[in-house]
């Protein structure tokens, strides 16, 4: 009976060690990388706010600080739909008389390439004192130049929320020829050429 009991004890201790390690892995802070090239700031903010708060973890609670780090690069190359670069306005006030300021998205982005993404994420986080702690785990970079100490901590790259469109010169000749055509201009051009030459033949 003694060997059998010791075997059960070893199995139980191994299970406890596994559960303990899984719990530590759940509470551990993970560093995620997100590429903001040709991405709307709102889509980036929605994806980053989930990771910063820890909403993707089963141990999430409003009073528990279990969020992860989010590193966003290429914030200089974000994209807005329509004419939002000129229509969207950011307002601020210094607190003094006459201190009301308004700038367009294009002006703010030219002054600070990370400000628009930072304000979008800040607005999607909970409106409490915990928001400052969450923002400390957000790392924004205008280009692909990320410090080496941060790059070493990266664990996973999050997929971009929107598929990046390609320019026409980025497609190969085979892809262009394989693209389905709705109509062909050659019969129309041939008919137009015959119509133009008909008076000359009379």
Characterise the protein shown here.
This protein is α/β, with parallel strands linked by helices. It has a domain at 28-162: Ribosomal Protein L13p, Chain: A. The protein contains 9 helices and 6 strands, in the order αβαβαββαααβαβαα. A 4-stranded parallel beta sheet has the order 5-2-1-6, covered by helices on one side. The N and C termini lie far apart (115 Å).
Secondary-structure topology with pairs:
Layout (H helix, E strand, L loop, with lengths): L1 H26 L3 E5 L5 H13 L15 E5 L10 H4 L1 E5 L6 E5 H7 L3 H10 L5 H6 L2 E3 L7 H4 L2 E4 L15 H6 L7 H16 L1
Parallel strand pairs: 1-2, 1-6, 2-5
Antiparallel strand pairs: 3-4
Helix pairs in contact: 2-5
Provide a quick synopsis of the model.
The chain is an alpha/beta fold and 202 residues long. The chain has nine helices and six strands.
The helix/strand order is: HEHEHEEHHHEHEHH
Integer average pLDDT: 85
Number of helices: 9
CATH architectural category of the domain at 28-162: Alpha-Beta Complex
């Amino acid at each position: 009976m003694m060997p059998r009991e010791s075997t059960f004890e070893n199995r139980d201790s191994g299970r406890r060690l596994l559960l303990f390690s899984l719990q530590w892995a759940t509470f551990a802070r993970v560093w995620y990388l997100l590429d903001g090239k040709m991405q709307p700031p709102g889509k980036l903010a929605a994806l980053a706010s989930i990771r910063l708060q820890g909403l993707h973890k089963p141990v999430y609670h409003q009073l528990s600080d279990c969020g992860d780090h989010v590193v966003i690069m290429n914030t200089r190359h974000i994209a807005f739909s329509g004419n939002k670069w000129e229509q969207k306005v950011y307002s601020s006030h210094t607190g003094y008389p006459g201190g009301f300021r308004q700038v367009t998205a294009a002006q703010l982005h030219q002054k600070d390439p990370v400000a628009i993404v930072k304000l979008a994420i800040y607005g999607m986080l909970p409106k409490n004192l915990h928001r400052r702690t969450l923002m400390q785990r957000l790392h924004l970079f205008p280009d692909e130049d990320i410090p080496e100490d941060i790059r070493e901590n990266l664990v996973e790259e999050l997929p971009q929320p929107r598929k990046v469109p390609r320019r026409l010169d980025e497609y190969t000749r085979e892809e262009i020829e394989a693209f389905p055509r709705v109509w062909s201009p050659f019969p129309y051009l041939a008919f137009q050429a015959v119509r133009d030459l008909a008076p000359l033949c009379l």
